[in-house]
Structures are given as C-alpha cells and as structure tokens.
Specification:
two-stranded antiparallel sheet; 32% helix
Length: 322
Amino acid sequence: MRVIDLFCGCGGLSKGFQEAGHTIVAAFDNWQSAINVYGKNFQDHPIINYDLSTFEGNAEVFGQFEPEMIIGGPPCQDFSSAGKRDETLGRADLTYSFAQIVSAVKPVWFIMENVDRAIKSVAFANACSVLKEAGYGLTTKILDASYCGVPQIRKRLFLIGELHGQDDAVEPYLARNLTKQPLTVKDYLGEAISIEHYYRHPRSYFRRAIFAVNEPSPTVRGVNRPIPATYRLHPGDTAPVTSALRPLTTKERSLIQTFPTDFIFEGTKAEVEQMLGNAVPVKLAQYVANCIGEYIENGLIAPKLALATPKPTQLSFEVALV
C-alpha cells in the first residue's frame, strides 16, 4: 500500500513497513535531528518538517500523497513509566491529533503505536472515539517485542484501524504469529556481540542494571550512561562489576532495536541515543505489517475458495408406490 508515516522520528516504523513490502510515500516530523537521519536513510520519498500538533482540519498536506495507510507513533513521554505520566503536559494531545488526521484523510488502514500505559489514558479513549465515529473497525493489542523478532523486552500498544472493518478482526493474526520463546540478544546478534554481560542504567537503584546476552535486552531507552563508581550490586544482576563490564555501544543498541547494520545515524551522541529510545523496533513494525498482510490475504482468498468449492450433487429419486 501507499503509506505515510506521522511522527516518523528516525524511521523505525517506516523501515519495518517498507521491509514488509509497503511503499512509504511521505513522512512527517518536526525534530530536525531525526529528520536529518531519516533523510539519510530514505531518499525515495520526502520527509517533511511539520508540527503535527498544529493540525486544524486541513488535510491537504497529507491527502496529496493519496495514502492507503497512515502509520505513526505519537510521542509517548506523558504516558511512559519513565516520564511524569501527566496527560496535562500536552504531548498526549498528539494522540488525538493523529486520530483527527486519520479521520480527515480517511485511508483504508491506520496503525498507531504507543507505550502500553497509554491504553488507560483519557487521550487514548478520546482518540478511539474519534476513529470509531469516522467509521473504523478497531483492533487494540499490546505486544511484547521479544516475541515478535526483537531481542528486547519492550511492551507496546498498537491500535489498528480498517475503514468499515470489524472490531478486533486483526487480533487473532497478531496473537497466533508470536514466537513461543522470547528472543535473546545472543540469538539475534550471534558473534556480532563479544561480551557476556553488560550494564544498562536503571531508572532507580531498586532495579537491576546488569544483564546477560543470553536473555532479551530490557527496553532500550533514550539514556545510555556509564557505570557509576558508587553502583552497588542488585540481587538480580547477572555478573559483578569488573573492568570488563560496560554499557552497550550506540551501534549495539541500534542493532537491538533491529535497525539494519548499514542504517546511518548522525548527530550528537545524546541525540542519537534519544532517537533510538523513541524508535519503534524495525522488526516489531514488520511483524505488525505482516500480520495485517496475512489478514488481508486471507480475506481475499476466502471468497475465492468459497466460489471454487463444488456444491454437493443434488440427487432426485422417484418413489414407486406399490
């Protein structure tokens, strides 16, 4: 399908849907550093600097690309466990902006991604109401990326809409294609990772900070700090602090976010780390796109099978009365 990506960041969603066979025709964001990176990696369509919070109903800037699908991950800091979780701060309104844009453009499909906590928010409920009123059948699903081809425990909410579709229609496909076991860092990176344990700075020291590569990575966040000299071991840590223990490099973090090895990142270290923390893992996006594709394909095949199935022969008998 022809797809536009709203709040595209550095391009995780775009890359995943592109890998699944869709054509990205335009992308929108207003963080210049992320726009620069996106433009380096996607040169076959425009990346437009646009403040999506200013949308007031004129959908021409989006409609000119004739999208059949709109995808996007509105900024999630006001829903995030790492943020203040305060919807009044304003960024949660971007969820509503996404819904308004979709309702104005009316593509056949939309996919919105956010943190799992967003499902309990007023902003998310309001967005769903707008989209239902616009005629969309909605599927809501929280996915753990480690069961979707990503070596990372990352729970994310997906809201999927099909114009004039049925509610929850895509859910069985999202559920049945999950792997039986979570993907570990070592499973995914193999010899590309030369360490056995690494440090990941915790949100608080009540949480573990040292992880093994034979388990999924914790959620990649926008913070990547060195080990403080005062760090004390947590009971859940997988190794002691030694001179060999280190945080993952920015490149390793990009691979755990399942960006291709040749994906180009540029900017300050802080900017790139924040882009990675904000990004949708490429393989998670591809997983969702493939599930939708399977749903669509089955919907096209089923009527053909019904037409091709021969009807039972109708036999008639004459009964002789004796």
